[in-house]
Model the fold of this input.
Amino acid sequence: MTGMMVFEHIVNNVPTTNIPPFIMQSENGAGLKAENLPQRTAVELIFRELGALSEMQTAVTILTSGNVTIGFDATAQEGVHVTTVHNTTRMLCRCCGLTFRWYGGRLH
Done:
């Protein structure tokens, strides 16, 4: 459960410093005993591994498929501009790049 909570916080752009305390609060709030919480360094290693896994999955998809379409898509909704890069084979589609830009803001 803790690993999935780390993943959810990373996906939702929670700063790595805040993830262990948030997990502790969530587990205590659910009536669970918060044990073996990951430290910030472990959270940062998980973050790097997820990036490496995403790159590896994208590379494997491209290299093992005879025909791959690489697409770019952009949309704006509720003040956020989202740009994705994805590759599609006959059987699957993988997102291999994603950026967010708040209107008038910086890239995230």
